[in-house]
Design brief:
Bound molecules: FE(4)-NI(1)-S(4) cluster
Distance between the termini: 37 Å
Largest sheet: 6 strands, parallel
Strand order of the largest sheet: 6-5-4-7-8-9
Strand content: 5-15%
Length: 652
């Protein structure tokens, strides 16, 4: 690290005290992190606004950001073509990432259903039946394996088919589906849509930004309603559908006197096998012989979110804490699979003598030991990681520094659990939710999801946004790294109801639920799509998702997966606001299409705002607009968040 660099105070980089403490330590130890690099690596202004095309060797062509229609690329591509093509590639990549995850889970499910894989099993038969019925598969008087075989066939077509409509089309509210049909954006198969979108971005291909945007929407919808939905549904069937569970989060979940193992990434089957390995009596005996009191398994990012809501396994932190946690010196092994794995982890792990492993052939890191997970024999990989962790514990040399921060939070609010929580076992329904929205106790529902990004103060935007929303009686649903940000701020407990407005507070206290409902990992945004569809089906709140008083936000997004998620929420009918930055030049026709035009076509629209309070205001104004259109707007006013409020909220 260069000596002459003046670093920002770590307290200004993150709202997470544990991460700030460890960033300090890393700095003292001369270890560089993404927070340091983000300060000194300013974003390329042309790239940030997508004003550059490097799709062919006649370029790269740089257009004028200040006067975007002044010139075109060498081929004549306009700024709208350039921006929409770049945006398309982000959506294609995000969709491919989630769909590849979905396909991997699908293949595991198929091998379990056909008896080829006996390492995993169908744990949730009720969920299998429900998914089958949603696909219009006959379930009565049929064996589990017969139903599973039909589910396999249907869902495989979701990835492979090149025409027709996606398998989960039956789940989409009729009017929403009608709009998609009119616009010709109902996804066929995920692979077809990604391939089609990528080929249209080739030089000399689709140069009508409006036409390209239809394929962008179609591809993004394939992410939400195929790739991600298959991943969620089949993970529930294989590993169990989560229900509300109290878990601990934050760095103090590491235990100095235990062998600590962290799993980071996305695909749940690595972590599921790790659970078995760490409970193996032989390893527990080895750990004790090495002087440990036991083996402590923790999750991070989305792998952690899958496990925390299914098994109550503690969570050490979100994406931007993955380097910092290694600086505790207490991590005896870190295993990673796919997505959001920073290359720098290998260097930080080496500095703190933590054995670091990649496990998935799609995601290897130069110089890092690879122990591949074979789903047919997963213990081979996870046992090897445990052995290495015990060995490292026995030979620990680095100083251990575990921050004293630990929080309890309740997670596992799947749409099934919300149904049960509101209506009970025999009359599970969304009716109470809709009724409370109609009578105004709950103003609307906001999905606050997604990443953390070192270009903004970690966790802070999520937390302030959510405090402002619940104060205004907006119920918040959550996925991804956002959930851990809010859990650390104490917002994911029923006690947080005191921070909610009077209507939402009353509902939360009556039901015993937090005002912020954690629904799972990023692929589990599909649970929000299903919940929205249920709200429409239950009645009283319009006929399509676009009619609902709901809004979405990814206030600290960083990944292309987030862009794909944002676009599928917009195409499904939801007003979706991004923070940090937006990769389009304001005032261009493509920008206008995303921010206004799509809504006129019956879909949702994009929004952009960095400030959490103004972001909350945008979302609440949208919710109020929808309430007005539904005729349920009586006696509601937005509580403005002024400076006094901001100070009070910040102190809570
Ligand atoms: Fe990655 Fe899923 Fe974003 Fe977190 S929220 S930084 S994508 S881990 Ni998915």
């Amino acid at each position: 690290m260069k000596e002459d660099r003046r670093h920002m105070d770590t307290k200004d980089l993150t709202a997470c005290d544990a991460t700030a403490q460890l960033l300090e330590r890393a700095r003292k130890d001369g270890v560089e992190t993404a927070f340091d690099r983000a300060q000194f690596m300013k974003p390329c202004p042309i790239g940030e606004k997508s004003a550059c095309c490097k799709h062919c060797a006649m370029g790269p062509c740089r257009l004028n950001m200040k006067n975007p229609y002044e010139k075109t690329g060498v081929c004549g591509a306009t700024i709208d073509t350039v921006q929409s093509r770049n945006f398309a590639r982000m959506v294609a990549c995000g969709t491919a990432a989630h769909s590849s995850h979905g396909m991997n889970i699908f293949h595991l499910f198929k091998s379990v259903a056909t008896g080829k894989n006996t390492e995993y099993a169908i744990k949730d038969v009720q969920k299998l039946t429900e998914v089958a019925e949603s696909l219009h598969i006959q379930t009565q008087d049929r064996s589990v394996s017969d139903i599973a075989a039909d589910v396999c066939q249907e869902l495989e077509s979701g990835f492979l088919q090149v025409d027709g409509e996606m398998p989960f089309a039956h789940r989409v509210p009729e009017k929403t589906l009608e709009t998609w049909r009119k616009l010709d954006i109902v996804p066929r198969g995920a692979m077809k849509e990604v391939m089609e979108l990528i080929q249209r971005t080739h030089a000399g291909m689709d140069q009508d930004y409006q036409n390209l945007t239809r394929q962008i929407s179609r591809t993004a919808l394939a992410d939400g309603w195929i790739g991600s939905m298959v991943a969620t549904e089949l993970s529930d069937i294989l590993f169990g559908t989560p229900s509300a569970i109290a878990t601990e989060v934050n760095m103090e979940c590491l235990k100095e006197d235990h062998v600590n193992i962290i799993i980071h990434g996305h695909e749940p089957y690595l972590m599921e096998s790790m659970v078995e390995s760490v409970h193996d009596p032989a390893f527990l005996a080895d750990a004790k012989a090495a002087g440990a009191r036991g083996i402590n398994l923790l999750g991070m990012c989305c792998s952690g979110l899958e496990m925390l809501s299914r098994h109550g396994i503690p969570h050490a932190g979100n994406f931007m804490s993955t380097e910092a946690v290694l600086a505790t010196g207490a991590v005896d092994a870190m295993g990673v699979d796919v997505q959001c794995i920073m290359q720098s982890l290998s260097n930080v792990a080496e500095c703190y003598e933590t054995p670091f492993f990649t496990t998935n052939a799609s995601c290897r890191i130069e110089g890092v030991e690879h122990i591949e997970l074979d789903e047919a024999k997963p213990r081979k990989c996870t046992d090897a990681v445990v052995k290495r962790a015990i060995h490292r514990f026995k030979n620990r040399k680095v100083r251990i520094e575990i921050p004293s921060q630990r929080n309890t939070a309740v997670f596992g609010f799947t749409h099934e659990y919300i149904n049960y929580m509101l209506g009970g076992t025999f009359r599970g329904a969304y009716t109470p939710l809709n009724e409370n929205i109609i009578n105004g106790h709950i103003r609307g529902v906001a999905g606050v999801v997604g990443c953390v990004n070192p270009r903004v103060k970690q966790d802070w935007v999520h937390v302030e946004l959510v405090k402002a929303l619940i104060k205004n009686d907006v119920l918040v649903v959550q996925t991804g790294c956002s959930q851990i940000a809010l859990a650390k701020a104490g917002l994911c407990t029923p006690e947080a109801a005191v921070l909610a407005g009077p209507g939402l507070r009353e509902v939360c206290e009556a039901v015993g639920m937090p005002p912020v409902l954690g629904m799972g990992a990023c692929v589990d945004n599909s649970r929000i799509l299903i919940a929205c569809s249920e709200m429409v089906r239950t009645g009283g709140l319009g006929n399509s998702i676009a009619d609902l008083p709901v809004a979405g936000a990814a206030p600290e997004w960083y990944s292309e997966k987030a862009v794909a998620i944002g676009q599928y929420f917009v195409a499904s009918g939801v007003f979706t606001v991004f923070g940090v930055t937006f990769p389009i030049i304001e005032g261009t026709r493509f920008h206008d299409l995303l921010f206004n035009g799509l809504e006129k076509q019956g879909l949702g629209r994009w929004g952009f705002e960095k400030d959490p309070y103004r972001m909350a205001a945008l979302m609440i104004d949208h919710i109020d607009k929808k309430r007005k259109a539904l005729g349920i707007d009586k006696a509601r006013e937005r509580v403005y968040i002024d400076m006094v409020d901001r100070r009070a909220l910040a102190g809570q």
